[in-house]
Amino acid sequence: MIRLGLTGSIAMGKSTTAKLFAEAGVPVHDADATVHALYAGRAAPLIEAAFPGTVEGGTVNRLRLGEAVLGKPEAIARLEAIVHPLVREEELAFLARARAEGRRIVVLDIPLLFETGGERRVDAVAVVTASPEVQRARALARPGMTPERFEAIVARQMPDAEKRRRAHFLIDTGLGPESARRAVAALLRAVAGRA
Questions:
Q1: Of 8, 60, 97, 176, which cross-links 128 as Cys (Cβ 3.0–4.6 Å)?
Q2: What cellular component GO annotations does this protein have (predicted)?
């Protein structure tokens, strides 16, 4: 079974691209969705203990948590030490299910794939990219996003040029949805022979 890592910086179109893989029948493990579920479940009490006042009604308040960790490397490391092992457990369960179903390819959608060393857990990496202008416009169109917050997030991520350099496949979402769909189809054809 081929494990394809899917990654890309903020507002590059990674979530939309992951949906294209799912529409093509490829199982996708979404690390962000897993984090959201954990924030409403197992991780909430652990995060509240580490960052008091960040959980309301049993669910992590992401804005409060963001305020508690953004721009604080030691706080980010503490949060990651709580969340990353739980996400990894969920990923391993996903892979076991896919293997049992006889899947030939799966996608691990991991925003910080390179930043966390996740490329060592996959067979190939697809990087979703777009021009800096498209990225910035998309990011600033998000609710609650400010130029300062965008810059802080970008500063924490590996530069897009470096991600593209390390990629086995590139999917440029700045060229429109049909171009991205064709790129996904071409990628699946390319890896089909290796599965």
A1: 8
A2: cytoplasm
| Final residue in a domain of this structure, among 102, 122, 140 | 102
What are the pLDDT digits (tens) for 169-179?
999 999 999 99
Q: Are 16 and 134 in contact (CB under 8 A)?
A: no
Same domain, yes or no: 116 and 179? yes
Tell me the C-alpha distance between 34 and 17, whole Å: 17
Q: What is the DSSP letter of 60?
A: E
Angle, alpha carbons 168-151-184 (nearest 5°): 25
pLDDT in tens, 54-85: 999 999 999 999 999 988 999 999 999 999 99
Same domain, 181 and 118: yes
Nearest in space to 20 (alpha carbons), one of 148, 128, 164, 100: 128
Predicted TM-score of the model (pTM): 0.87
Rounded CA-CA distance 187/5 in Å is 12
Domain interval for residue 113? 1-27+103-195
The dihedral sign for the CA sequence 90, 96, 101, 105:
positive
DSSP per-residue letters across 92-161: HHHHHHHHHTT-SEEEEE-TTTTTTTGGGGSSEEEEEE--HHHHHHHHHTSTT--HHHHHHHHHHSPPHH
Which of 65, 70, 11 is CA-nearest to residue 38? 65
* H helical segments located in 56-102: 62-69, 73-100
